[in-house]
């Protein structure tokens, strides 16, 4: 595939180490999920290359951490600005390697730049304290210091935003970062690195290594220099990394899987609930960790809601992400498609009613028809496990107590959504849901200004917002005695 960009330098297939692009080494292919064609062959990093990246991050830390907040803020602001200026190229690369519709990719570029902008501001607001003393001849102060070298391991579903959400606060705090993007989407990460360099990110402050995930992971996790891991991805990989982090006692931020409930109560505005459902379920072809996994609908509005939802879903435009008007692109790979097929087959077998979709799409490849399944039951695979695809499973409940029990009947606790208008119910349910994020009469909850993160097996820590930078800071307390 010929890749036509306005700025051809944004296409980088090398390895970005210590401010240099390295072209030598074994390469692996990055595929376009829409047609399985090869987009590019990129250098495959492993344990050794990652060690070089860690060394350069350690070296760069000595000067980067002593820069003023204003300097770091300026770099992050310019970086965000460059992302906006190159939105078309960044979106194009993203759609090529990830498959999401171009309009969504452009939306992600803006969202991703938003984290750099936000943390450019937060960099300037890292305050310490003076604490009232416990001894007449002593004074107590706190300093907030950068934790050191950070490992950022990110997934393919948001190839830019998951990186800026970590690199933004890390750089703002004065940390240096080794980024390990998903091997499915290294081109977006590399383009981001090009713009970072142009914005003034010094050599070694950000390196990008993708390829042998286990080897890179081993280098990062065994390093005593890497003091912090921020990971977004599957629960299984997160658990592995958490175990590996024990040996060097790294600070951890983990954004893992979810199993988001979306509750529609009988007092909900049903049309608004259907709108919210569409946005939350089908964005990125159902491949986000905050996508609804279980629709829980009250008996009296069950038929009305599922009918309207199925009508809307059946009208969605599935197409290559470059086709104008595309609303759903392909799934990322065959493994993702297999999981969706397995969940739908299992639901059918256990009495699920397919209201629309339920099959692979005629476009072939990893395209799947957007699907609504009614009469979903607790024993189905899609009740317990994230489908991560365009399948809306609708369960039924009788009353609020049952709805809450169903909603919380999962190990996960990232996002939850509900639609209701009764103010007492709104508070009861908002407080009763075991989740880090609750969308109330709203299906889109991601923004750089609010804290994103989960409870239970969905993870540790919060990203974005005024809290996000704390994950990259250590508090040092000074006790000054003998005064
Ligand atoms: P998914 O199944 O959605 O790809 P993963 O958790 O496997 O989710 O991927 C998220 C990120 O974790 C990717 O960058 C991936 O390469 C990385 N990853 C996977 N396995 C490991 C590992 N053993 N060590 C370090 N990183 C890993």
UniProtKB/TrEMBL annotation:
GO terms for molecular function: succinate-semialdehyde dehydrogenase (NAD+) activity. Pfam families: Aldedh. The active site is at residue 255. Residues 26-477 form the Aldehyde dehydrogenase domain. Keywords: Oxidoreductase. GO terms for biological process: gamma-aminobutyric acid catabolic process. GO terms for cellular component: cytosol. InterPro entries: Ald_DH/histidinol_DH (IPR016161), Ald_DH_C (IPR016163), Ald_DH_CS_CYS (IPR016160), Ald_DH_CS_GLU (IPR029510), Ald_DH_N (IPR016162), Aldehyde_DH_dom (IPR015590), Aldehyde_DH_Superfamily (IPR050740), Succ_semiAld_DH (IPR010102). Belongs to the aldehyde dehydrogenase family. This is NAD-dependent succinate-semialdehyde dehydrogenase. It comes from Halomonas cupida.
